[in-house]
Amino acid sequence: MAVIIDGNKIAQDIRNEVRQSALELKERKGIIPGLAVVLVGEDPASQVYVGRKAKACAEVGFLSREYKLPADTSEEKLLSIIRKLNDDKLIHGILVQLPLPKHISTEKIIAAIDPRKDVDGFHPYNVGGLVTGSPLFVPCTPQGIMELIVRTGIELKGKEAVVVGRSNIVGKPIALLLLAQHATVTICHSRTKDLPAVIRRADILIAAVGKEHMIKADMVKDGVIVIDVGVNRLKNGKLAGDVAFDEVAAKASFITPVPGGVGPMTIAMLMKNTLNAATMKV
Ligand code: L34
Description:
Blueprint: E1 3-4, H1 7-29, E2 34-40, H2 44-60, E3 63-69, H3 75-87, E4 93-96, H4 106-112, H5 124-132, H6 140-151, E5 160-164, H7 171-180, E6 184-188, H8 195-199, E7 204-207, E8 225-228, E9 232-233, E10 239-240, H9 245-249, E11 254-255, H10 262-279
Parallel strand pairs: 1-11, 2-3, 2-4, 5-6, 5-7, 7-8, 8-11
Antiparallel strand pairs: 9-10
The structure holds ligand L34.
């Protein structure tokens, strides 16, 4: 039976550390980290995440500003808000919650954010930095996963890591971070031939697909470490991961639950990135 990795607890530890550092930053330099979160439209899940981000800011002593814009906001209007935030001395981090409505180009919006305020790590400047090994900011969810692994004491060097999913937010960046820690990394996706056979090779499995309970016990090997990034809302309102938790936990050595695994870590890492943005000399 696997050890269940407690994301809520580890995220709380990190928020406490960030809170302490923010206090020191205020005392030493008079700087209060400021985060602007922009939400376009009324997607219920996005509203929950953005609400949690504001709450975390309050907890660690940051300034937080929320911009809640209607779904029909024009691209030009959103760009003008970003330009203002780029110049705003009180704001160190800018986050535009994804997904954006279809009439807005996500790529254009991300490119408009000052890379020094890009606490999501999505700007091409930071993506390039991640590929070569020295980004200003690493995307929050993959960074949160690495922190869970580090704080659990799991050794990555030489391990077979399999990432299921190839999104810009999770799949691609987590593969690069695992690679930097000397894992042997395989990225698979919907067109992968014989997916179960590839997944069965994993010492460490990162599931970031967005399909509830897709990964079953017969697809993993004994002792696997499972990080479940799925946040699938079921019809009954409950949240489910990409992994069939009970049966896979019986075979795994470590596993993250959903909720209470990766989700809270995403927000804790956002706090850490915002603190770093405020500390950075630019
Ligand atoms: N720009 N867009 C931008 N940055 C991000 O880092 C995100 N992401 C993803 C969606 N869009 C984004 C988030 O914030 C996903 N995500 C996120 C954040 C928090 C949680 C889940 C996903 C979270 O707190 N999950 C809780 C349960 C919350 C609930 O009940 O709905 C958990 O324990 O997993």
